[in-house]
Amino acid sequence: MDLVVALVLCLCSLLLLSLWKQSSGKGKLPPGPTPLPILGNILQLDLSKVYGPVFTLYFGMKPTVVLHGYEVVKEALIDLGEEFSRRGSYPVIQRASKGYGIIFSNGKIWKATRRFSLMTLRNFGMGKRSIEDRVQEEARCLVEELRKTNGLPCDPTFILGCAPCNVICSIIFRNRFDYKDQIFLDLMERLNENVRILGSPWLQLCSSFPALMDYIPGKHKKFFENYACMKSFVLEKTREHQASLDINNPRDFIDCFLTKMEQEKHNQELEYTAENLANTVLDLFAAGTETTSTTLRYGLLLLLKHPEVTAKVQEEIDHVIGRHRSPCMQDRSHMPYTDAVIHEIQRYIDLVPTNLPHAVTCDIKFRNYLIPKGTDILTSLTSVLHDDKEFPNPEVFDPGHFLDESGNFRKSDYFMAFSTGKRICVGEGLARMELFLFLTTILQKFTLKSVVDPKDLDTTPVVNGLVSVPPFYQLCFIPV
């Protein structure tokens, strides 16, 4: 009975606190719908037609400013990039990473880690091979794995996940894994499970009420367990690297970070530590695997749905590359239609609809509203990628969105598939390379065959809270 009374008192206290927070300071923020007690506006998202391009939602008891449309997103993330550069609240991941890494960190740690990671990825002439060599090698391995399906119907999810995962592993750990390696399989499974957990309604509830995580069981506990196991693997690899480190001849990302740690060991700041290294590696591992593999999987589904598009891409491959030479990045400038198709895949699938949350670094006057320091900001990438003035009939898959009247590739400032501004995806260059080389290599070596009539294929995104994923499908890879 005492427990019931305590729960009722807690709920009443939360309700009063919620109502007080919603009424206090409200005039400083953009307008928005009246929040629901406790749950806030968590179920009300399509509100731009009522409140305009800038409005306020409440997730739980926390106000979040939503930016909708190209002009306002550009104004915030590019024109006022520094003021909108803080990472917004994502309690589950931030608790696991302890504020370290590259994606969910802030302040000096974020700036130093991002600068170092960008420099290392851009200068990856380290060792004997460039990043492009690694991607081409993995593309050949991918083709061999696809041949093993013998042209029979298969779900491509696992194989398409292994390829980009191995590329990032070769950059981070120096070595790629065999697709049947048990350690590799365990890492993949834990990563995939954590992505599923992050997209679950339960985790969205935990994000709205982070205090609950300490007191109740649930999927967040499994997330922490998986994260700890993957982090333990990285720390073990780090110790192995330390034992054989040659600071004059770094072999991979870990070696470069360890070398930087040695150079900065007398610095009192905490940017270059084993803790930050482990979390940065996990950020690169997760982001470098999941986003690219989902885009590849979704891309193949769209190519199945639109065989006329696939035929034109293969015609361009035959003309520019031929059947025997491996595709390379120099080919892309001579393949405008293929380039347009890849951009249209990314635009159409709208992989991360609301972007990762931002926050403002200071009190800022924005479009006549005063947004207090630390306020979370959601930027609707959907509203940019599906803008009907820039992309006529945005709900239709049409490579013509990125072609001019002469059939040349047409760039668009509205293409924000990797976000934009100071928090733009660090791995954008690598992801673009992987998408081009993997897709052209697959289409060079295989004909894609649907197991159902292409007209019956469903390409509607399944939004799972964090990213948009394609519905389940099977296809046959028929060797050319």
UniProtKB/TrEMBL annotation:
Heme binds at C425. Transmembrane segments: none annotated. Its main location: endoplasmic reticulum. SUPFAM superfamilies: Cytochrome P450. It is found in: Endoplasmic reticulum membrane; Microsome membrane. GO terms for cellular component: endoplasmic reticulum membrane. Pfam families: p450 (PF00067). Belongs to the cytochrome P450 family. Keywords: Endoplasmic reticulum, Heme, Iron, Membrane, Metal-binding, Microsome, Monooxygenase, Oxidoreductase, Signal. Its cofactor is heme. Residues 1-25 form the signal peptide. One of its GO terms (biological process) is xenobiotic metabolic process. It comes from Muntiacus reevesi (Reeves' muntjac). GO terms for molecular function: heme binding; iron ion binding; oxidoreductase activity, acting on paired donors, with incorporation or reduction of molecular oxygen, reduced flavin or flavoprotein as one donor, and incorporation of one atom of oxygen. Its EC number is 1.14.14.1. This is unspecific monooxygenase.
